[in-house]
Input
Amino acid sequence: MQHSSPYMMRVKDSVRLSSPECDEVVVKLELEPMQGNALEPFMAGKVARLGLPGLKEPMPSYFAIASEPGCTDYYEFVIKERPGIANLLAQLEPGASVEVDGPMGKGFDLSPFHGCNVYLIGVGTGIAPLRSVWRDMLSHRDDYGDIAIYAGFLTPCHRLLTDELESLAEHNIEVSVSVKTGSDVWDGPIGYVQDMLKADAPVGENAVACLAGMNAMVDACHETLQSLGFNDSQILLNY
Output
């Protein structure tokens, strides 16, 4: 399917991911082609630019595609309500039109790392491009060694995709969820993802890591991974 750029899609579904008690509204937005045509596969970690038809302000912005690369029926995005176009996108209802430009960007190219151990490390909505990676790997689980996910959130109520992350144990994927600030009902790890990474100390030999999230977190995890024997070619960013 060839597209001019941008092209039109519509909201198929919008589901709140953040807890109702959370002060942040985060939704999973599912977009499908207007004419029902198949979408082209893409590399995990790619992004798309989203805007609203006929609206110049707020300007379109970039969001990571959270769905698996082989899905040709729709794209999924994790959108946090914040000033700008994200605020409007997070409030859209099924049937609304969205302008989409992409997929584009670098993505996470894991093709040179078949047979390796894979570490996916992200915080907050940075989990979106990593979701695309792990959903792709579920279809090719035997192509990789150990797979571990390190997901960090501000507080327990800021966690996203909790049920999905828990279900990955069925596919022999380890998941570590940590929060910066705990609560009375939280009995999991408290701290930064780089702290969890340092405590587990994965071996850099025959391994690759994908990082997604805030720059400070990416820099800290990059430094931690280097101290564990990962070189720059084994530490992947999607931009």
About this structure: The first helix runs from residue 85 to 90. The helical segments are 85-90, 127-138, 162-167, 193-200, 215-227. The chain has five helices and eleven strands. The chain has a mean pLDDT of 93.
